[in-house]
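Lab notebook, bench 4. Continuing the backlog of folding jobs that were queued last week. Each job is logged with the same field layout so the records can be merged later without manual cleanup. Today's entry covers peptidyl-tRNA hydrolase, a 235-residue chain. Filled in by technician R.K.

JOB TYPE: sequence-to-structure
TARGET: peptidyl-tRNA hydrolase
LENGTH: 235
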Amino acid sequence: MADYPSDTKKDLSQIVRGSSEAVEHSQPRFRRKSKYAGPNEEFLKALMNLGISRNAAEKGLYMTDNSTVDAAASWVLDNQDMPNLDEPFKDFTPALEALPFEKEYPLDEKTLSSPYKMVFVVNTELNMGVGKIAAQVGHAAIGLYKIMASQPQKYDHMLSQWDDFGATKIVLQGESTAHLFDIEELAKKAHIPHYLVHDAGKTQVSSGALTVIGLFGSSSEVGTLTGLLLLLQSI
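JOB STATUS: finished
OUTPUT FIELD FOLLOWS
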């Protein structure tokens, strides 16, 4: 198995609840309700470890009331088009604070915390194009869902909760084919549902190339395998 930095031995379930990156979970730009006392430093560090700038991470925590790393990361990714996202936090002055969104997006535990998520780790050494990556992640999502749907007694309750909380999906950067196989071995040992995508080789990559691994589980479970990986933004 590949060697990874020593800090991967930390208890990630305590510091990383997952990364979104590309997170398919729409959130409003402004929806804070409670008094803000500054960023949760533990959450802030976890977000920065995911490749999010400090300023953007602070804004995400501000707008989601320091609820979870997941919620803040999702907010950042949903608002990457904001022109001042990476500017210093002291200059961040949302003019449309919460009120228009509170009825549609109540700031409660259900809105902010998804108990389960799908995480996809992309093999970046293949240098796939954006469209190719999207197709491969789609294959992984369908394959993983089919595996779980075929065992309803074991997974139905998990899939139902996942769907109820927005069907959160996250895409991360993997280093290589060997790295994805290492993640697969860890997933097997942890009994985490997973699915490997081997491409047919019709475009861009050779036949049988390992392009993506999909994982499903709780934030803490999946975080122990992928919590230190960067969000897939541009490669």
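OBSERVATION: Residues 130-149 form the longest helix (20 residues).
SIGNED: R.K.
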